[in-house]
């Protein structure tokens, strides 16, 4: 194996490993989107009602989003979290002498992940919003497909190392290309879903939202996957081409 191809193969493996770590961290964390809101009054009956509704297993899309808007919420692919102010109702403890912010998280069940979204969030009689429904499902499924493709590609790459041949890494490169497309699709679906949600549910006054670092990790992972794919395919194709030319020269 030529040193050029070996170097390209090693660089592609490093890029693949980094993108896999980034993608796994992105999937497992809760900071795809973050809301910033002013401090709420602890004694407010409305605030207590929102906390209670947020913890309910029957909370609908409008209910938990209202809590996210008002209490510095963060959203991931698996969970949604809000920040409870110090000494808030239900979270104060006589043993504690320090003020602290408690984070309360609730997981999205599989049923919620595949549940239909409504034209008017929270109103089940408003009809199903197919676009938001399928955007939500894609943003949840595509990252796992991407991670699975990269892992499968890594297995093929390991087999190529054992066989001391770069040719099988063409398949690894193609799988990384597909993984990058899945990651890019997931990010695009998430952005579109957030924008459509905010058109349906306007943010309260003085509340702002921004994409979090979990989302940024997914965004960075996609180009790394594309670069790894290009190096894998280039190394395998060029090495194969030179081997064929050398073999033809020897025959001649």
UniProtKB/TrEMBL annotation:
The keyword tRNA processing does not apply. It is a multi-pass membrane protein. InterPro entries: CLDN1, PMP22/EMP/MP20/Claudin. It holds the Pfam family Claudin_2. Keywords: Cell junction, Cell membrane, Glycoprotein, Membrane, Transmembrane, Transmembrane helix. The chain crosses the membrane at residues 6-27, 140-167, 173-194, 215-236. The keyword ATP-binding does not apply. It is found in: Cell junction; Cell membrane. GO terms for cellular component: anchoring junction; apical plasma membrane. Belongs to the PMP-22/EMP/MP20 family. Plays a role in negatively regulating the permeability of cells to small molecules. This is Claudin domain-containing protein 1.
